[in-house]
Amino acid sequence: MARLFAERGHLVVVADLDPEKAEARAAELGRDCNGIGCDVTREEDVKRLAASLPRCDVLINNAGIGDSARPTLEQDIGHFRAVLDVHLAGTFLCSREIGRLMIAQGAGAIVNISSIAGLDGIPGRNAYGAAKAGIAMMTKSLACEWATHGVRVNAIAPGYTRTALVDKLAADGALDLGKIRRRSPMGRLVEPVELAEAAWFLASPAASAITGITLSVDCGWAAFGAAGDASAG
Ligand SMILES: NC(=O)c1ccc[n+]([C@@H]2O[C@H](COP(=O)([O-])OP(=O)(O)OC[C@H]3O[C@@H](n4cnc5c(N)ncnc54)[C@H](O)[C@@H]3O)[C@@H](O)[C@H]2O)c1
Predict the structure, then answer these.
(1) Dihedral sign from CA coordinates of 141, 129, 164, 221
(2) CB 3.0–4.6 Å: which of 26, 58, 170, 203 could bond 14 by disulfide?
(3) Which structural domain range is residue 97 located in?
(4) Ligand 1: which of 115, 156, 165 to mutate, judged by most atoms within 8 Å of the beta carbon?
């Protein structure tokens, strides 16, 4: 997403936990892109991030932590709270602080990252599913509240996408990628660039009348309701 927005002329600020990684990633984007260390669960970090920006046209709330399916009776409250904190409190804090800038500008677009896990139940993924469903609902609330301020708020619900998070779950044996391909009507995972294109569309003037939606970008995953495999994988 950062690469695609930078290639198309945006000055991108990469905010992530590790400042060195954020700076290194921003340096790859060229031009005057910046990297900044920011823990989205910490109010002071998010306020510092917002204060460093003279203006902001697009906010993508992408920070997230994965979790493996685990029997509910064995789930730990600390991990449950941590997942809600990053996804829900993080989306809330970043939207509130950057939304303040956008409202002052009279324009802006926020793209939140939900998930197919927020649309349908995945046994054992209580915190992640609840957090992603919560993001879809927060998207609607913010969209309605800020609609007359020129600020649009939408979300994307990605299907399984080949990123570091999914690679780690697959390497740990927590995800069977073959099974996932067969459950996908298109027989494949989503490519990161396909999510970037969806974020670009939602943030662009082409989507000027679209606010409050959660757009599935999932190779047909959420559309499939029959028994068995959806494709040969
Ligand atoms: N990969 C998938 O299949 C998939 C599917 C649906 C939704 N998503 C969502 O997409 C988003 C991106 O996921 P990804 O697959 O690229 O994962 P990733 O692990 O590759 O990237 C997530 C990033 O979030 C950062 N992060 C974690 N906690 C943070 C915090 N407290 N403050 C700031 N940054 C923090 C991490 O450092 C990491 O760089 C997440 O919200 C994830 O839930 C991913």
Answers:
(1) negative
(2) 26
(3) 39-222
(4) 165
